[in-house]
């Protein structure tokens, strides 16, 4: 979901990494004639006058800003409108321009404008040469017309005070549910006008209007995480109106939207994102245990992690000195580990944090200051963890924007109490992370959330499209699992699945293999031969750099590019994508201090309600 989650996991991307990695894939050979856009959908969007975009140069960000107005309700094309904010990076080789490539970073609620502003640092030059790159902030979010469910920051803060952590402990559940119900009520009353018009189908319709506005006969789209669901919906609403759709970090669309049969299970749980995070962590700890001597700081990685988590469940640790230290809780640990798992090199940092915390516990210094272990833990954690209370922000609508999409997209249980049992069961399957993900949509309980979008989309997701769809599935993705990519490829007849044995959330930019395949598809409109049989390997693998910065003795490279250079390039590309996906502002990032030899990681800081 997006967006990609910071320690506050309202940015929600679905479906867990699977222990069994199915190899069956679909090929891009439609068994029947391609479907056409339905008469109903064609009428909805085609009767909207093509808006004119006035592009204004933004020298600081290397592109052009713009905006358009689209109908709030496509059933009332001349009624109320919403503004959609845009950012364009013009094609570097305009004489050979193919068209416009639209981007979406996920969320729901991530800023496509921010992503486009950073496009030159994560997209390949060949793509930048041939496409105008355009990002847009979906309706209700960021620089577009925003959904505000409260009349003031003060009222918002009071109502949402019970949502203090990433997930509630057993003693906090009542307050958490109460605050979520207040959010739902506010979005169903004060914010209802826009909150009831934010489903992914509305964004897909907006994107089709934008396609016309930039002068393209066919859409080109690259979507990450929740952005994959936007691509899936567009492909099924407008199966004959796109040239290329590539989706990475793929949501199982049926699990996301749900059905009348599965509506008793929260969307956050039926998508099994908790299992994704848990499986990624377990695989990373296993890699730590199997690493060469000196490459992993933990003696028994899984047992060490379990011991630290168990200790923090009973008592927080005070890390740092009295002046700058703070109490570090179990919730903090799980949130921070989850955030780190979003990065290809994240497991190396997870191991360092766990080792420092375990040393504090073993030394009996968990309530004292000044110990070496405490200072080590503080130096690692302080870089990417900040107490929510330290933020001074204005009105932050990120949770409202996220909810406006998911709560109108998905079938959900009626009572918020359903989440208590459901998260308990989920946590038994996915320790620690089942509850972290599971509580992220309790505000969508239908007894409280009354903002409905009658034009939301619930399938089918099996239209035979004119053009093929490229689906990228990452084995160790901690948020959108490989099984989701497989399911999407099974559902969509004219699609091909590219598999990647890589780490972190989404795979584009983590290896030449994935990046080149996606780029070739975007540039040619055809999926390269052999893609369905290909398994890419991420350039960055956990515990392959020891503390002195050397590579393992067995590490070799066959080409002229050094492994270090490859990792630097991959890390740079990936960090840009992740940053735009998980943070509302580029100012909300800090660099994690790295031990020698590890590439730097830029992590998003949590926003007030994330």
Give structural notes.
It is a single chain. The protein is α/β, with parallel strands linked by helices and 610 residues long. It contains 21 helices and 14 strands. The protein has helices at residues 39-46, 112-117, 125-130, 153-159, 173-188, 192-195, 200-213, 226-237, 253-257, 267-270, 273-290, 301-314, 330-340, 346-363, 372-381, 398-409, 418-429, 433-438, 482-491, 512-524, 563-582, and strands spanning 56-58, 63-71, 81-89, 99-104, 131-136, 219-224, 242-248, 317-319, 326-328, 469-476, 495-503, 535-537, 589-592, 601-604. A ten-stranded mixed beta sheet has the order 1-2-3-5-4-6-7-10-11-12, sandwiched between helices. Strand 13 (589-592) and strand 14 form a beta hairpin. Helix 12 crosses helix 14. The chain is globular, with a radius of gyration of 23 Å. Residues 1-30, 387-391, 554-596 and 601-610 have low confidence and may be disordered.
At a glance:
The chain has 610 residues and is of the alpha/beta class. It is built from 21 helices and 14 strands.
């Amino acid at each position: 979901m997006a967006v990609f989650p910071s320690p506050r996991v309202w940015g929600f991307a679905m479906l867990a990494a699977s222990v069994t990695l199915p190899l069956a894939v679909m090929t891009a050979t439609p068994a029947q004639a391609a479907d056409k856009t339905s008469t109903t959908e064609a009428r909805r969007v085609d009767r909207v006058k093509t808006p004119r975009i006035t592009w204004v140069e933004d020298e600081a960000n290397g592109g052009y800003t713009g905006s358009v107005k689209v109908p709030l309700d496509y059933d009332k094309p001349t009624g109320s409108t919403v503004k959609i904010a845009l950012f364009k990076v013009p094609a570097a080789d305009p004489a050979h321009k193919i068209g416009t490539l639209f981007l979406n970073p996920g969320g729901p609620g991530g800023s496509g404008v921010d992503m486009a502003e950073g496009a030159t640092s994560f997209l390949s030059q060949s793509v930048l040469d041939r496409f105008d790159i355009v990002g847009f902030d979906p309706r209700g979010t960021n620089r577009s017309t925003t959904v505000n469910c409260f009349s003031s920051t003060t009222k918002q803060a009071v109502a949402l005070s019970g949502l203090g952590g990433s997930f509630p402990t057993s003693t906090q559940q009542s307050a958490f549910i109460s605050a979520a119900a207040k959010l739902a009520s506010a979005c169903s009353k004060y914010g209802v006008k826009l909150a009831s018009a934010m489903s992914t189908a509305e964004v897909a319709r907006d994107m089709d209007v934008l396609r016309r506005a930039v002068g393209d006969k066919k859409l080109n789209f690259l979507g990450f995480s929740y952005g994959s669901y936007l691509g899936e919906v567009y492909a099924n609403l407008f199966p004959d109106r796109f040239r290329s759709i590539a989706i990475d970090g793929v949501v199982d669309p049926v699990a996301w939207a749900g059905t009348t049969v599965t509506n008793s299970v929260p969307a956050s749980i039926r998508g099994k994102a908790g299992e994704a995070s848990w499986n990624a962590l377990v695989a990373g700890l296993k890699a730590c245990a199997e690493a060469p001597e000196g490459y992993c700081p933990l003696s028994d990685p899984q047992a060490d992690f379990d011991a630290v988590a168990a200790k923090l469940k009973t008592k927080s640790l005070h890390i740092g000195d009295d002046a700058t230290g703070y109490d570090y809780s179990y919730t903090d640990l799980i949130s921070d580990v989850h955030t780190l798992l979003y990065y290809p090199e994240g497991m190396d940092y997870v191991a360092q944090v766990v080792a420092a915390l375990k040393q504090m516990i073993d030394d009996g210094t968990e309530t004292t200051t000044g110990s070496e272990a405490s200072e080590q833990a503080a130096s690692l954690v302080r870089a990417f963890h900040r107490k929510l209370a330290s933020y001074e922000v204005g009105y932050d609508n990120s949770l409202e924007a996220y909810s406006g999409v998911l709560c109108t997209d998905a079938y959900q249980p009626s009572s918020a109490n359903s989440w208590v049992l459901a998260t308990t069961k989920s946590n038994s399957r996915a320790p620690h992370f089942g509850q972290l993900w599971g509580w992220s949509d309790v505000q969508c309980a239908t007894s409280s959330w009354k903002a409905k979008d009658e034009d939301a989309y619930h399938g089918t997701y099996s239209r035979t499209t004119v053009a093929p769809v490229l689906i990228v599935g990452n084995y160790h993705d901690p948020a959108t699992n490989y099984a989701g990519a497989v399911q999407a490829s099974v559902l969509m007849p004219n699609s091909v699945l590219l598999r990647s044995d890589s780490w972190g959330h989404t795979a584009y930019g983590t290896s030449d293999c994935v990046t080149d395949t996606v780029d070739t598809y975007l540039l040619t409109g055809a999926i390269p031969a052999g893609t369905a049989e290909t398994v890419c390997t991420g350039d960055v693998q956990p515990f392959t750099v020891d503390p002195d910065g050397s590579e393992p003795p067995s590490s070799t490279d066959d080409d002229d590019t050094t492994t270090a250079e490859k990792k630097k390039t991959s890390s740079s590309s990936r960090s840009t994508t992740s940053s735009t996906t998980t943070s509302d502002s580029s100012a909300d990032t800090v660099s994690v201090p790295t031990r020698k030899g590890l590439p730097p990681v830029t992590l998003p800081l949590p926003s007030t309600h994330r």
